[in-house]
Amino acid sequence: MRGENAALGAAGLAAFLALAEAVPRLGLVKEDYFPPAGRIAGALTDELSDPAFWTALGDTLTGWALGLAIAVGAGVVTGVLISVVPYLRQATASTIEFLRPIPSVALIPLAVLLYGTELRSVLLLVVYASFWQVLVQVLYGVRDVDPVAEETARSYGLGPWARVRYVLWPTALPYVMTGVRLAAAVALILAVTAELVIGAPGLGARIAVAQTSQAVPDLYALIVVTGLLGLLINVGARAVERRALAWHQSVRGEVAV
Question: How many Å apart are CA 90 and CA 56, to the nearest integer?
Answer without folding.
Answer: 44
